[in-house]
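Entry:
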Amino acid sequence: MGAVVALLLAAEGHRVTVLDPRPVLPLTPEPDLRGLGDGLGAAGERPLVLLAEAIRLMSAELPDVARTLVLTSAVGHGEPNPVVDRTLIAGVLKEEMSRTDGIRVDRGVGIASLLTGKERLPGRPHIQGVLTDEGEAVLADLIVDAAGRGSNMVRQLSEIGAPRPLEERQDSGMRLYTRRFDSPETCPGPARWSLRHFDGVTVTSVSAGRGTCSMTLGISDEDLQLYPLAGPSAWSRAARLYEPLLPPLTGKPSPGVWVTPRVESSYRRFVLGGRPVATGTVSVGNAWAAVNPLLGLGPSMGLLHTVLLRDALRQVGVEDTVVRFDRLTQDLLSPLHHRITDWEERLEARNGGASGTPSPPTAAPDEEIARQDATPVTPVTLARDLQARFSLISADAESSIRTGPSRAQLVEALARRSAT
């Protein structure tokens, strides 16, 4: 997301310095994309699900980037949930930054600590820059934290004596088991994304449409009988149970199963009681809040968040950006995040054996989605469309929970010792 922030702010005439802490390596995904949200599979290898509404917003805000993605077939026309190869979109954003005036990128440079200046609000530190891990002071009017789920901002703020921001973490109660398929023969057809909930397991398949795809089986963390999914042979036997109900994945998968033992949602708020815990800094995308990657909403939420930051700067200037950005976030994105985590908590309670069934959110009818697709996209309309998409995703998950193979059939398949 750092790249998207840099491009949006440079277009406004701001001079932007991007600090990239990772070693300089050729042909690797840029950390800028991590803030857009997580995909599926091993780190650095995951495609990104960008909803059609988000692509429309990108076309309006970063037309050259969107045009390149279409020309390279990274994004198809008319796809409801476009899937983009992470490495490809990273390269497109890197190239766009390199030819954009006002952007400087320092690769292999991390942040050791925050630098404070004269207070702008009584009792609140003002961040005027950062000290890099190479000992260089980098000063700026606004520090934008786009470090993703692994952001150290809360710790770094505590080190300079700032009040602790509101921080919430919620374990989804899921474990994920993912295998990749890497040949064009294995992943035919256009980019696609599918999410289905069955008895005891959630199944997601993702294809970037460029010979790379993956399937993830998500289970309750307490369901020890399904832990054998970590074995390639057991995983393949289980996946075959769901093949008739999902987009086809044929051919030989890559060796091994990528296990994600903990799927966590997080939320941070840096303005409390109308006052920022510190001035001069904001957090965007997953550094602000992260949701379950299986839902495929994180990248689109992250893109919207970067636009809200640009809009806050437009509306009030640097001095009041922190509070204004918080207000826009609370109005347009926080309700969706809380709705997702509330639904997830109810789903976990049911899967854990609690009585009752969570009420699925009301689904937006197809004609409503079609009407929204014809509306000029703005942050407000994209926030509304994301809410509608979540309604469809979650309602579909609810309606398919009891279809397909039973959990007993899954356990039986895992118990067999046949070869893959």
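The radius of gyration is 22 Å.
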